[in-house]
Amino acid sequence: SHDAAFFAHRMALMHQELSGSVFVIPQFGVSSKEMDYTLTTLSSAKKLNAFESLSKLDDGSCEAAEDSSSADSQGGSIFHALNDMWWTLSGPYVRGPKKDQAKVDDSTHRERAKTLDDIQLDLIRLLTENEQYSFYGIDLSPILMVDNMGPRDGMKTSEIAREVEEFGGKVCYNGMRLAQLAAFGYTINVLPGAFALSTPDSRNWITVDLSGFSTPPGASRCDGCFLFD
């Protein structure tokens, strides 16, 4: 969105004394060309149920992800919960703050804090043996704004949980880094107001025609992952 840099910079300033934060930026996909990058238009698209699966819009979802989503939706449900929280916290930017101030009290803040705590615990639970295959249900590479300073003195994100290019976009790794950050004690939250939107025009700008080229084993995001094979 056009305002993503503003919201990111403001949130960083607000949390400069509180290290160890991770903010998830939601992603939406539409097939209509009549879309701009404003929160108001995005809210209207939500009311019209105009959002579509990003993986299917881009290059098709992985079979393993579809199977996992139907059998065990733990992985996907976490990002649904994050998106719901994002819509809740982004509401004042659409409706105006005065309409929301009367509805927000201490119990509302406690309820939202509990929801974020539950999301954090669910992410950590993904790293257990019983839930590890739920990673296949996260057919979306999350966009994260991560504090490079960890929640404890001496912890640096770039050293203990850095982004690994070779793993990026692999269906079973999509949620793994976020789960690791949660397990390390980082505070998981959303970045209200900021979002990414995939439109027909944006997909045309970044799509490369690879027809005629064979994909080497291990190069596709749908290939198996050695952790689970």
Sheet/helix structural class: mainly alpha
Unreliable residue runs: 67-72
Provide the succession of SSEs.
HEEHHHHHHEHHEEH
Approximately how much helix is present in the residues? 40-55%
Instruction: Tell me the distance between the termini.
Output: 38 Å
Radius of gyration: 18 Å
By oligomeric state, this entry counts as single chain
Number of helices: 10
Per DSSP E runs of 2 or more residues, the count of β-strands stands at 5
> What percentage of amino acids are in beta strands?
5-15%
Question: Can you put this structure into words, describing what you see?
Answer:
The chain has helices at residues 4-14, 39-47, 54-58, 63-71, 74-95, 97-101, 106-125, 157-160, 176-183, 200-206, and strands at 21-25, 27-29, 143-146, 187-190, 196-198. By secondary structure, the chain is mainly α. The strands form two sheets. A three-stranded mixed sheet has the order 3-1-4. Strands 2-5 form a two-stranded parallel ribbon. α5 packs antiparallel against α7 and α7 (106-125) packs across α9 (176-183). The chain starts with a helix and ends in a 23-residue tail after the last helix. 25% of the residues are buried. The model is unreliable at 67-72 (pLDDT under 50).
